[in-house]
Design a protein that fits this description.
Strands 2-3-4-1-5-6-7 form a 7-stranded mixed β-sheet, with helices on both faces. It starts with 10 loop residues before the first strand and ends with a helix. It has 2 domains: 228 residues, Rossmann fold, CATH 3.40.50.300; 86 residues, Arc Repressor Mutant, subunit A. By secondary structure, the chain is α/β, with parallel strands linked by helices. Helices cover 49% and strands 11% of the residues.
């Protein structure tokens, strides 16, 4: 079975532990490496499990080293959204619609980008709102910009594979799962719970009426290591670490600016409700846990809320009059 990633244009893979999900990911990656040089294809790997994709570190196709920290992964996904927007601005300047037309008229060819996420569940636990927003924006708009998503998870429950993510990633691969409910989450129908494991899969490409049952290919660790070593020996330009540091710095600065915008709104929420908690900020401001926790930490540093006491509660140290005075002073600066 051969399928073009450009036609998919994004792929969602799910299956329980030992079903062959990671082997399938490696098989897809090896196929991409065999068919494309670094000038044609760039890769971004996000691997919170730290064991599956780190073997590819050092190959010239990578835009940055394999990302293993879930918090940093949210930053890298936003970087990809920025890259997508930059590409669309270039398309507008040239008066073209997509990457194929752009490469016909531009002097410097634009490489395709494939973003591989090995465990979505870990990212959704750390920063669900930011990760879901970035994935959905990429899934909705990135195809014409030559950017494709391959997202894998071993926990295909509705809190991980949300309806918004499913709606925007049309092609699916389901490996053996533990229940019919999980099968329905990934395929919108039962069947995956009856698969045998070890690469037995249901492949449901976009536009198909029903899924195909396929046996996945096996790629050994030795094959991967041999291929990676061979590619590293080729005289391609290595990953530019300075570019990565600049990217991280610019995104962190953007984060701080956004948090400054929300800071006084967050303080007002605490003063109005006369209680302080991270979950309250998440509900009222509709932000992720990581961002809400940073705002609370910032308030503690500025003496607006007290540190946690013995019963895990915080005291609000200012009233509404002080809040108005402080926010007015901040706006006048």
């Amino acid at each position: 079975v051969v399928a073009k990633l450009m036609d998919m244009p994004h792929l969602l893979i799910a299956g329980s532990t030992g079903s062959g999900k990671s082997v399938c990911l490696n098989c897809i990656i090896m196929s991409l490496l065999y068919n494309s040089v670094p000038d044609q294809l760039k890769l971004v790997f996000i691997d919170p499990k730290m064991v599956e994709l780190t073997v590819y570190n050092g190959i010239p196709h990578l835009m940055c080293p394999v990302v293993t920290d879930p918090k940093r992964a949210a930053v890298v996904l936003r970087w990809m959204v920025n890259e997508m927007e930059k590409r669309y601005r270039l398309f507008a300047e040239k008066g073209v619609r997509d990457i194929s037309r752009y490469n016909q008229v531009a002097q410097e060819r634009m490489p395709f980008i494939v973003i591989v996420i090995d465990e979505l569940a870990d990212l959704m636990m750390v920063a669900p709102v930011e990760v879901e927003d970035s994935i959905c924006r990429l899934a909705q708009m990135a195809r014409a910009a030559g950017m494709h998503l391959i997202v894998a998870t071993q926990r295909p429950s509705v809190d991980v594979v949300t309806g918004v993510i499913k709606a925007n990633i049309p092609s699916r691969i389901a490996f053996a799962v533990s229940s019919q409910a999980d099968s329905r989450t990934i395929l919108d129908m039962g069947g995956a719970e009856k698969l045998l494991g070890k690469g037995d899969m249901l492949f449901f490409p976009v536009g198909a009426v029903k899924p195909y049952r396929v046996q996945g290919a096996y790629v050994s660790d030795k094959d991967i290591e041999t291929t990676v070593e061979f590619i590293k020996k080729q005289s391609y330009q290595a990953v530019d670490e300075n570019q990565i540091k600049e990217m991280e710095f610019s995104l962190e600065q953007a984060d701080l600016e956004q948090e400054d915008d929300l800071f006084w709104d967050a303080v007002a929420v605490f003063v109005d409700s006369e209680k302080a908690s991270v979950s309250l900020l998440q509900r009222r401001l509709r932000i992720g846990y990581a961002r809400a926790a940073r705002l609370v930490d910032l308030m503690e540093e500025r003496g607006i809320v007290s540190p946690l006491d013995a019963s895990n509660k915080r005291e609000i140290l200012i009233d509404s009059e002080q809040l108005e005075r402080l926010s007015a002073n901040q706006r006048s600066m």
